[in-house]
Amino acid sequence: MFTTKIRIYFFDGDPAGISFYGNIFKYAHIAYEEFMWKLFPDRNVFLDRDYVLPIFKANANFLKPMLIGEKIKIKLFVSQLKDFSFEVSYSFYNKKNELTAKVETVHVSVLKKNFKKIRIPVELKTKLEKHLK
User: Fold this and answer.
1) Model confidence pLDDT, tens digit, residues 42-92
2) Total domain count, the chain
3) Which residues contact 38 (CB under 8 A, 6 or more apart)?
4) CATH code at position 83
5) 60 and 105 Cβ atoms separated by less than 8 Å
6) Which residues lie across from 72 on neighbouring strands?
């Protein structure tokens, strides 16, 4: 499991003072990027490879509002790992440690040059397996 924190900024809010619902995917992606940087700290994991991992499915469930100014804890783990794709699950917690939202994203491994689906490279798959729950 990987954990990070983000702040809900004023520009992320709506007139009710809570985070605009669409931003949940931005927050999940921030956590995903932090996770990937931790897996590959010695190189630019997003640019220095011949494959990419686009999201082809995403889902969000909202349980409690996330308020402007609040620091949110995001827990991330790999919930499914297949030959060509993997699913990442995110749980969002407020300062009272209450679950505020859940997100799932499914990523597919494709060649950067032509977007042809390929098996997840062994190096990445080995690192993802360590976070499989």
Assistant:
1) 888 788 789 999 999 999 999 999 999 999 999 999 999 999 999 999 999
2) 1
3) 2
4) 3.10.129.10
5) no
6) 6
